[in-house]
């Protein structure tokens, strides 16, 4: 908040500095968890975990690699083909390399989503909640570690978190417009 002379009040400067420190902490926390996931990624033989549906996804991706988009592979006939198609779009010419690339991409999308959630919560003056929530989401094995699993669930969760942050940002902009009028 600015005073009449145009200078920011000491309280405003304190909150701005505090928010910046909290944002740096959340960024460091997210990077820390990404590094841990990449260490796990390198330590795994196939560089990813097999989820419950992994065999169907691997067969679908291999069919797409072998026959192209109009593949007649059985796995694509009864299996949801969207996830294998996303994996197929990754670089490389083997199913395992493409899946490993997609595991990295899922991890980065999840990291960005959790960082963005923390950033939005800090903008709403929920600094302590933001730190705890980002920590809990990243330490939770169902969400955090599953970015290295072949399955669409983590990607769906990441996109849900991103859509929540976009909604909260949009809502904040609407609230700012209302108060200015």
Layout of helices and strands:
Layout lengths: L9 H34 L10 H14 L6 H5 L3 H7 L6 H29 L3 H13 L13 H28 L1
Helix pairs in contact: 1-5, 1-6, 2-4, 2-5, 5-6, 5-7
Low-confidence stretches: none
The general outline is elongated
Biggest sheet layout: none
Fraction in beta strands:
under 5%
H/E element sequence: HHHHHHH
Structure description:
It is a single chain. With 181 residues, the protein is mainly alpha-helical. Helix content is 72%, strand content 0%. The chain has seven helices and no strands. The protein has helices spanning 10-43, 54-67, 74-78, 82-88, 95-123, 127-139, 153-180. The chain is elongated and about 65 Å long.
Quick rundown:
The protein is an all-alpha fold.
List keywords for this structure.
181 residues, mainly alpha, 7 helices
